[in-house]
């Protein structure tokens, strides 16, 4: 399975576990869609907006001495938009209804974003030197944008 | 009148066999406070999971057309009791107290009474 398919599988699994999700997408830190599952509002636009919000969030956590970026939760009148760091170069953005269980959303999304981070980082490593290790995701500033466009 | 921290502390120290307690907002699934727990009982996970339990029961009652309110929910495990008590005091809508007890050390009737009293004293 390609990394892209695996990321998509992970997004679908996440949506099955949190039924109040109305869309899920994985994007690179610079705003390119890696995989998306039924984001009606336009995945490309949301990925780009996520990158912009991420830029502000990074500066905010940095300026206030809160360390690396972990997650961003925005609540509107009709629901939530949540973004979670997925490794060092990708993010997971989720759209949820307003009646979502935020506690569960966090628990499931943190697990999924760690998994997606592993998948993305493994895909960036050249194939022959790919170690079969359990990657514990670190949360560095996403400074290396992964220019790996989805085909 | 006790604040959240004090009420949870009281629940875990006064009630025999208490393993952990949490005050949870079931509109969001987030805990307002937790006391006790540990690696065997992650109270954040318990808060989110039991939110689904409470929501399911509320929905079931709606579907059954039962015009009533939930006072508490008891879940009996092999080695533990889990007590969920919905708050009904003014301004505390959408909250529940969650208490996990060691079945061997706990007195269920006593625990339920004590939790009721703690709820009555709780000031949000």
TrEMBL record, chain A:
List every stretch annotated Disordered. Answer: 125-151
- Report the InterPro entries cross-referenced here: Roadblock/LAMTOR2_dom (IPR004942)
Segments traversing the membrane: none
| Domain Roadblock/LAMTOR2, first and last residues per copy | 8-96
A Pfam family assignment: Robl_LC7
The record's section on SUPFAM superfamilies has: Roadblock/LC7 domain
Q: Give the domain of life.
A: Bacteria
User: What name does UniProt use for this protein?
Assistant: Roadblock/LC7 domain-containing protein
Origin organism is Streptomyces pyxinae
UniProtKB/TrEMBL annotation, chain B:
Q: What is this protein called?
A: Secreted protein
Instruction: Tell me what organism the protein belongs to.
Output: Streptomyces pyxinae
